[in-house]
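hey m, so remember when u said the tokens were messed up on ur end? i reran from scratch. heres the input so u can diff it against urs
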Amino acid sequence: MKKTLNIDEQLLREAKAACAAETDTETVRQGLEALVRHAAYERLRGLLGSEPQARDVPRRREKPRERPRRKRRAA
């Protein structure tokens, strides 16, 4: 989608250097993605301690799969 934006040139240059983006579009996209991630983090953080009666939930971890061993070739 195309949009016309008024962005401070110095700020855009600094953001572009900070995220190592090659284009202005990539810089804006990375910045927007970071903003969305941060907002989600803040929402989750706001829930911390909001359910005092909650019990700890046991976690299941999958056992790592064993890889078949490779046969060595005779040299």
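this time it looks ok to me. The longest helix spans residues 24-46. if urs says something different then somethings off w ur setup not the seq
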